[in-house]
Amino acid sequence: MIRRSLRSGLVAAFAVVAVFPVAAVASAGPAPQQAHALNSTPPQISVPAWQPAPAPSTLPAKPKAPKCHHTKGRAARHHRQVRHIRHIRHIRHIIRNHTWGHVVTHRLPLNVRSGPGTGYRVVGSRAVGSDVAVTCKVRGSNVRGNHRWYRLAHHRGWVSARYVHNLGTVRWC
């Protein structure tokens, strides 16, 4: 019985040392702070042969992940410039390929509808005196004697020609 207790105790002690080797080695010698205080060299901790040596601190640092090119620096300026150039091209396209009209309602804003007629739902409005880009015209429902409706640029809706004074010739859709 004693032999079995000693054998299981020895196995348990070996398992503790195998699982916690640094704690076992560090507890074998003087405390690191005390050893460092006694002499000027830092303490040397011996590492068992079966345990890999600690990595030296002189290894090159892990390369950092590249920064997102949309957030900072020259790339961000580049993207702003590209957006600005696209915006300018978009405006030039509207000016070149569309006819401009001037909203001439009295006091109330002009309703923009989803189709060329008063039966279609209202999807927006334009203020009195604002300019609108007109793509083409169609025949729609009658608004005070005028059957023409203008389609706004970029499929934004339809407005009655009765309340838009166009500044050029509008083609038929």
Please provide a written account of the structure.
- The structure is a single chain.
- The protein is an alpha+beta fold and 173 residues long.
- It has a domain at 99-166: SH3 type barrels (Roll), CATH 2.30.30.
- Helix content is 34%, strand content 23%.
- It has helices at 2-19, 21-28, 32-38, 73-97, and strands at 99-103, 110-113, 122-126, 131-143, 146-152, 158-160, 164-166.
- It has a five-stranded antiparallel beta sheet with strand order 6-5-4-1-7, covered by helices on one side. A two-stranded antiparallel sheet has the order 2-3.
- Helix 1 crosses helix 2 (21-28).
- It is elongated, with a radius of gyration of 41 Å.
- The N and C termini lie far apart (105 Å).
- The mean pLDDT is 75.
